[in-house]
Specification:
The protein has about 450 residues and is an alpha/beta fold. About 40% of the residues lie in helices and about 15% in strands. The structure holds iron/sulfur cluster.
Length: about 450
């Protein structure tokens, strides 16, 4: 990272809204009227060499709903209902694997997300993945990623997760203080983290990632330093740190609304960024490399994020399950978000699509550009080769503006964010959106 001096930041309280940008154009532009575009995308194979294919499976169950959670999750389903849901997802995969766009292709990466994938029992996991592999073999996959909640991981479960082929296990620790975990509605406690971590290391997963959140309810300076120290003790292969945001459908927002408060009772953005900056500095001093605005990796040669890098580069993603997100031949779409509706669509032999957007080549170029910015470096040559666009010229005005704020430099035809720029990258990305897609920034 280059060493550019930035002006002293103003203080910005955390207000309600989404900060993190995970896709483009924004979800609010996806529409139920576009579902036919999804059918059309799947009706024929790619012309020429297809991009990589990823498979995502969504498990919408959790032990408890965290106060900061904005996903549709179910905390009250019994074993029969879970079995029924898993059967539905297999039915969906069966239907999709036969579509001309997918038939004959093998996933480059597989991802189990949620919700809480580790909520499933060992036998449910084995049965589900055996059936999935029979429909869409993943023996060519370079990465099988799996999200786990520490309190759900007994030794048999950890073994089952390893046996189904998981290469990267991501442990949602979020914080090492039991009181903070409780106040934020997390189901697990710290002693479960250490117990689970020992088992995970004993099983020998290729990669173990831990997730932390900077700025949970009642986070303090002292506690944050403790989080950094505990993380260094564990020595995971990678650490992902999110800055706490408060989207509208979270428990925290509901409390804010009830009390008439516009400001969330958590640290301001400058404090959260400083905390991540301090964590990154401590990890770097310990030999880690910062590989994105959120991630530190111990050994960049060995520790890859194929899901992230392929998806950001334009891979197809077949998302299975309620509310899952997909990307097929330039069409973004999301599945129905309620289990009952999802179930009914499959019963009727229909794809369970809720909303979709067929992107233009320009939108795909912008999408890849903004997502690559999150890695801290964008090479102009890549965009010239792939899209025939000179991004230095196309985005000259916003780049000059961000450069004047001391957050990036242009080095040998590469756009390079410095550390301060990287830590507020999501807030910079709006400047590259097409005018019709600009919505309110929250910082
Ligand atoms: S574990 Fe994750 S998905 Fe489940 S309620 Fe908490 S934040 Fe939401």
């Amino acid at each position: 990272m280059s060493d550019t001096t930035s002006t002293p930041p103003k203080k910005h309280a955390t207000r309600a809204g989404n900060y993190f940008i995970s896709n483009y154009p924004p979800f609010s532009f996806w529409s139920e009227d576009n579902a036919a575009a999804v059918e059309e995308a799947y009706s024929a194979p790619h012309e020429g060499t297809p991009p990589p294919l990823g498979l995502y499976h969504h498990i919408p169950f959790c032990r408890k709903r965290c106060h900061f959670c904005y996903f549709r999750v179910y905390t009250d389903k019994n074993a029969d209902e879970i079995k029924h849901y898993l059967d539905c997802t297999v039915r969906e995969l069966e239907m999709m694997a036969r579509k001309p766009l997918i038939a004959g292709r093998k996933p480059q990466f597989v991802y189990f997300g949620g919700g809480t994938p580790s909520y499933l029992s060992p036998s449910q996991l084995t049965d589900l993945t055996d059936r999935m592999k029979a429909l869409l073999p993943w023996n060519a996959a370079e990465e099988i990623a799996f999200e786990a909640e520490p309190g759900t991981l007994n030794p048999n479960k950890v073994k089952a997760i390893k046996d189904i082929g998981v290469t990267r296990l991501s442990l949602g620790i979020e914080n090492f203080d039991d009181r903070i975990l409780e106040i934020n509605g997390r189901a697990h406690r710290t002693k479960e983290v250490f117990r689970a971590y020992e088992r995970i290391r004993a099983e020998g997963f290729d990669q173990v990632n831990i997730d932390l959140i900077a700025g949970m309810l009642e986070e303090t300076e002292e506690n944050w330093q403790e989080n950094i120290a505990r993380t260094l003790e564990l020595q995971p292969d990678s650490v992902t740190i999110y800055q706490m945001e408060v989207p509208y459908n979270t428990g925290i927002y509901k409390d804010m609304k009830a009390s008439g408060s516009l400001v969330a009772p958590i640290a301001d953005w400058e404090t959260k960024r400083r905390w991540v900056k301090e964590a990154f500095a401590a990890l770097e001093a310990d030999g880690y490399t910062i590989s994105s605005g959120y991630t530190a990796v111990k050994d960049p040669k060995r520790t890859k994020f194929i899901y992230r890098d392929s998806l950001w580069g334009g891979a197809d993603l077949l998302g299975i399950g309620v509310a899952s997100f997909s990307h097929a031949k330039g069409v973004h779409y999301q599945n129905l978000t309620e289990i009952d509706d999802y179930d009914k669509a499959l019963d009727a032999g229909r794809m369970p699509t809720k909303r979709a957007l067929k992107t233009t080549p320009e939108e795909r170029m912008i999408r890849e550009f903004i997502l690559r910015m999150k890695l801290g470096r964008v090479d102009a040559a890549h965009f010239r080769d792939k899209y025939d666009v000179d991004v230095l010229e196309r985005f000259a005005a916003p780049l000059a503006q961000i450069q004047s704020e001391g957050l990036l430099n242009i080095e040998d035809s590469a756009i390079v964010l410095n550390r301060d720029g990287l830590l507020c990258v999501d807030n910079l990305l709006h400047d590259f959106f097409l005018p019709q897609h600009v919505t309110d920034k929250i910082v």
